[in-house]
Design goal:
Helix content is 33%, strand content 21%. It has 442 residues and is an alpha/beta fold.
C-alpha cells in the first residue's frame, strides 16, 4: 500500500483537517470496513442502499487513521476531511496522486474481454517491470480511483480497466486516469438499454483513446468496422492489429493453440478465436514497449482466467466450464464457438441463461442466439430464466422460466456421463454458477 502525507491529502481535496491532523502517514485508502486496515483513510460513500457514514465507528475501531466525510456530517472524535461530495473527493485524491506518478499508464476498455485483456497485458508488461493492475473488474467511478490510489509510487506500469453503464462515463474516467497507451476490445451490443445504437456504444468507448496524449499509442483492431472512426478520435499514434489481414501486428492461427504474430509463435492459455484476438492486443502492446517476444510468450503462459471466466472443473468425470460471470451477444457466440470446437469424444451440453441490459433489442438478440445455437448442434441445451425463453432451440431438453439451479442440475445428472462436457453461460444477474453448486451435491 502506498503512503500519503496528510498535508497532501488535504491539498488534493482543497479542505483542511478537522479534529486534528493524523500523526503518521496514511497507509492506503478504503471505502469498505470489511477490508479496511490500520492506518487507512476511510472514505464514507453514500450509495442507493447504504451510507458509509454509518460505519465510521467501525472503521476507526479497526484502526483507520482518518476519514473523508460529507461536509454536513458532524464528527468530533477523529481526524476527518470534510468535503461537499465524498465520491468527488475520492476523485480529487486520485487526480492529485496521479500527478505524482512516473509509471507508464495503460488503459483498457471495450464491450467484451476487458478483464481478460487487462490481465494479459499486465502479465506481459510485468516481465519488464513492477506492474499494478485493476483488481477483478474494479473499473467504475468508485473502483478506478480506488485502484489508482492503491498503486505503489515505484511502480513502472499501471494497467487499468475502464467500464461503463451509461453515456459519458468512459471519457470522464479516462480524463481521471490520463493514460499513455490504450487498447480497445471488441465492440458489441452491451448496455444497449442506455444507448440508441451500436455506433453510440463505439463512440462512448472511443472516449478512452480521445484522452491519449500526442506522444501516446492506441492499439486498435483493423478488422473492426469501427477502426476508421476510432482512428479519427485520437491524436496519438495508432498501431493496428489484425487476424490474417494487413496491419502493424498480424496474427495467424497455426492450430494447436498457437498464435503467430509477425513471425513469432505464442502459446494461448485458453481455447477460442476470441482468446487469440485478446492475446493479439496484449502481444502488440508488449512489442510496442520493446518487450522481447520470448518474454511476452512467458507472460501469456502465466495468465490465469478470473473466476467464472472459462473456469474448468471436473465433477464425477464430467468437465464443467463455468463462464457465467457475464454475457452479451458477442461473448455468448465467442464462448459457444470455443466450447463447440473443443476436442474429445464426450458429448457437449450447454446450460444457458439470459443476457441482460439489452433494452428493446433483448428479444431479437436472444432469438438470434437461439438460431446460432441450432447451427452448432449441441447434444443438449438447458435454457433458464425469462430471457432464456427467447433462445429456446431445437436441442433444448428443458426450459425453466425461473432459474431453478436444482432442477437444471437434475437434468444434467440424468443425462450426462463421464467424459461429457457442460458449458455454463449467462449474465451475472442469472447466477448460473449455482447449477454447478447444486450438481456437486447430487
Amino acid at each position: 500500500m502506498p503512503e500519503f502525507r496528510p498535508e497532501d491529502l488535504a491539498q488534493w481535496v482543497s479542505r483542511p483537517w478537522k479534529n486534528g491532523v493524523p500523526e503518521f502517514p496514511i497507509t492506503g485508502i478504503s471505502h469498505d470496513t470489511r477490508t479496511i486496515k490500520p492506518g487507512n483513510l476511510y472514505v464514507a460513500i453514500r450509495g442507493e442502499q447504504f451510507d458509509g457514514h454509518g460505519f465510521l465507528r467501525e472503521a476507526f475501531a479497526k484502526g483507520a487513521a482518518a476519514a473523508l466525510v460529507d461536509e454536513h456530517f458532524q464528527w468530533l472524535e477523529n481526524p476527518v476531511l470534510r468535503v461537499p461530495d465524498t465520491v468527488k473527493g475520492l476523485w480529487a485524491l486520485a487526480s492529485g496522486y496521479r500527478k505524482t506518478w512516473t509509471a507508464t499508464v495503460i488503459g483498457v476498455t471495450g464491450s467484451v474481454g476487458k478483464t481478460t485483456v487487462k490481465e494479459m497485458v499486465a502479465d506481459v508488461v510485468a516481465r519488464k517491470g513492477k506492474t499494478h493492475r485493476t483488481a477483478g473488474n474494479y473499473n467504475n467511478h468508485i473502483g478506478l480511483p480506488l485502484t489508482m490510489l492503491g498503486m505503489e509510487r515505484n511502480t513502472q506500469f499501471g494497467v487499468f480497466e475502464i467500464g461503463m453503464n451509461h453515456p459519458g462515463e468512459i471519457g470522464a474516467l479516462a480524463h481521471l486516469l490520463q493514460p499513455h497507451i490504450a487498447t480497445l476490445t471488441d465492440i458489441g451490443s452491451v448496455h444497449r438499454e442506455f444507448f440508441q445504437s451500436l455506433e453510440e456504444i463505439a463512440r462512448e468507448k472511443a472516449g478512452l483513446i480521445e484522452k491519449l496524449p500526442a506522444f501516446g499509442t492506441a492499439v486498435l483492431d483493423r478488422d473492426s468496422e469501427w477502426f476508421g472512426m476510432m482512428s479519427n478520435h485520437t491524436c496519438a499514434s495508432v498501431k493496428s492489429i489484425s487476424m490474417e489481414g494487413v496491419a502493424d501486428y498480424v496474427g495467424r492461427n497455426l492450430g494447436g493453440g498457437v498464435l503467430e504474430v509477425n513471425g513469432h509463435p505464442y502459446a494461448m492459455p485458453l481455447p477460442g478465436e476470441h482468446v487469440m484476438r485478446n492475446a493479439l492486443r496484449a502481444i502488440a502492446l508488449g512489442l510496442e514497449l520493446g518487450i522481447d517476444p520470448v518474454e511476452i510468450d512467458a507472460g501469456l503462459r502465466q495468465f490465469n482466467p478470473p473466476p467464472m471466466r472459462w473456469e474448468e472443473s471436473k465433477v464425477a468425470g464430467i468437465t464443467f466450464i463455468d463462464d457465467s460471470y457475464n454475457a452479451n451477444p458477442l461473448s455468448m457466440r465467442a464462448v459457444l464457438n470455443a466450447f463447440h470446437g473443443l476436442d474429445g469424444t464426450g458429448r457437449k451440453w450447454a446450460v444457458l441463461g439470459g443476457m441482460r441490459e439489452l433494452g428493446e433489442t433483448a428479444t431479437a438478440e436472444h432469438e438470434a442466439l437461439g438460431r446460432f445455437i441450432d447451427e452448432l448442434g449441441f447434444d443438449g441445451v438447458v435454457a433458464v430464466g425469462e430471457l432464456g425463453r427467447s433462445m429456446v432451440c431445437k436441442n433444448t431438453v428443458k426450459f425453466f422460466q425461473t432459474l431453478e439451479p436444482a432442477g437444471a442440475a437434475e437434468i444434467l445428472k440424468e443425462n450426462l456421463f463421464p467424459g461429457d462436457k457442460v458449458l455454463l453461460k449467462a449474465s451475472r444477474g442469472e447466477r448460473l454458477e449455482r447449477v454447478l453448486d447444486c450438481f456437486k451435491k447430487l
